[in-house]
């Protein structure tokens, strides 16, 4: 029998669970786990949203770049009938005023297309577009008679325009992260497709 006043081991209170310190550690671990899970989910969701946003803007850039190139080529194409009519290179039944209106409409479309490039494009693509615009203006000026020039100068301006279009393609592809090139050793520079002249002053001035 135990001595008086000294509780036996069986009579001492025993904890039926974890101690206070251990409970606090367990609670802290649960909280850390919950916070870690929440942070991980938040970062994943933010990354997913950012990727979706980048994809959406890339899609808009593709449309803007494609529309700008189409509009630039349309402006070039609209200049050809006017130039040929003014220079007597091809017979046309349309009044010169109508041909000028066609070129003006094409120029309006080009201007709107380049505005989208300015809003969405990368720095190099925008600068490449500015360089192309200079050549387009020179073609426009010669077509309308605001500047003089020979047939060879006219053709050289068209060569310069399509070189500038290729340069714009390169800048646009780089901005979109597209592999490959449209110029270089695998893509030798190609000249205008000009048909054989049928006379001293005939033949398409641009190869159309």
Automatic annotation (TrEMBL):
Residues 184-208 are annotated as: Disordered. Residues 199-208 have a biased composition (Polar residues). It comes from the Bacteria. This is Secreted protein. It comes from Streptomyces coelicolor (strain ATCC BAA-471 / A3(2) / M145). The lineage of its organism: Bacteria, Bacillati, Actinomycetota, Actinomycetes, Kitasatosporales.
